[in-house]
Fold this sequence. Notes:
Leucine Aminopeptidase, subunit E, domain 1; about 550 residues; Aminopeptidase; alpha/beta; 16 helices
Amino acid sequence: xxxxxxxxxxxxxxxxxxxHFRRLLGSHLSTGCRRIGVSVxxxxxxxxxSSSSSTTDNALCGKGIVVGCYExxxxxxxxxCAKDVDLQTKGKLIHTxxxxxxxxKKGESRLFYDITEDHAHLAVVGxxxxxxxxxxxxxxxxxxxxxxxxxxxxxxxxxxxLQSAKVADILLDDLxxxxxxxEGSVLSLFSFxxxxxxxxxxxxxxxxxxxxxxxxxxxxxxxxxxxEAQNFARDLMETPSNLLTPTIFVDRVSERVxxxxxxxxxxxxxxxxxxxxxxxxxxxxxxxxSIAKGSSxxxxxxEVHYRGTESREDKQPIVLVGKGVTFDTGGISIKxxxxxxxxxxxxxxxxxxxxxxxxxxxxxxxxxxxxxVPLCENMPSSRAVKPGDVVVAKNGKSIEVDNTDAxxxxxxxxxxxxxxxxxxxxxxxxxxxxxxxxxxxGSGAAAVFTTSNLLWQQLHKAGHVTGDxxxxxxxxxxxxxxxxxxxADISNxxxxxxxxGACTAAAFLKEFVEVDEWAHLDIAGVMESxxxxxxxxxxxxxxxxxxxxxxxxxTST
Length: 557
């Protein structure tokens, strides 16, 4: 189906300090560093294109090709696209590979020149041994589809190699998996540099899939949507907090939804409902408001609805809830200044949720989905909530605020209560909630806390497919006992200091959930990428957006 092709500039009034950046942000404000779209170019290839609204000349020029090769016992084997290139060049590709040292190992790449008349640059990327269905004993415990992850990495390596060579137009081999290939390429080209001078910004090439197979083109388009969704979440997370207040967050999502709606068969299937402060107050969301009142920025509860089906008897939606603290100082329990700037990304759960719902609409998912995002800042002020205060949540439970830096769970508590009004078939919440989970899992996987074995299996399967893993953590009754309070019904921290901090946080959220199918994802450990994966550079990661999309898509079948 047609995808996002145009976006509108935010029309709400902005603060004076933000006006200076409107010129830099331009019409691509809603999608990231460059406006991104997917379009069919011809019967022979399909394109993932990134273009800038800047009027300056693009320094990239020329054309290039990326193809792959497998390792074999006797040497190497070219992919089907690479074989076509070799045939067209009368064996020149194989001859050049042999002259350059022979087989190219997994993860490696080589750049050749003037192999074809029309493309001055040709990169060959190593894919390792061809997957013949037998499990690889050396990677069996990786908990991901290793062959797909290899394709993502190889596509990223080849794309970035030609980008570094200043190639403007790239034709990309599908590498046996067009969807994973698109994901790797799209994700690898992300760069948050629009606030820098033009000459310091990376130039983004056009990347096209070389294929005559319509199945490949469909898979490529899907992969582009998945990659673009994660990039949108990354862009939101990277944006400085003075340029992404709760109000601006609402504007950016509204703008992007407006663009996507233009390409949908039924534009009314995707809608945005911003709930202002007055509405939040009318809903008796005392926990949420206790954090929001410390900032002069108005809070919002943003709803993004996607109606993917009306034909099924069971129209109950999946409700996704994302923590949206656009900057977290810790409040009165203030954080150390070192590294506090990273807390611009404390709305990572919100970013992933809104990106997921919009991508599901683009993919035509046959599922009803509601995204709920409580948005505010956590600031110290004379109005801010104080340690020892007691507040009352939407469901009537009283909460002792032992630590104002455990604020995310207070936003989520009221939002989880509200989620039940949609009669959901399942609720999944995401939050950069605890430093404890970063200590426990690092960036290896997002943590899943749930009492539902079915929901765990669905999320685990989705993570295996996308390569963006999840790992189940315990949710014992023990942790519920540790959040008891002598002042209120519960405390917002555990009584064992730092012990089991991620587990007691999940136990706290459980107090506000009544449905059986609920999962809490603590994504604090995967908030940042440290460059471990070729397709995910250093910076905010946008994880686990693709896993969340895959989970919902799987439930629609």
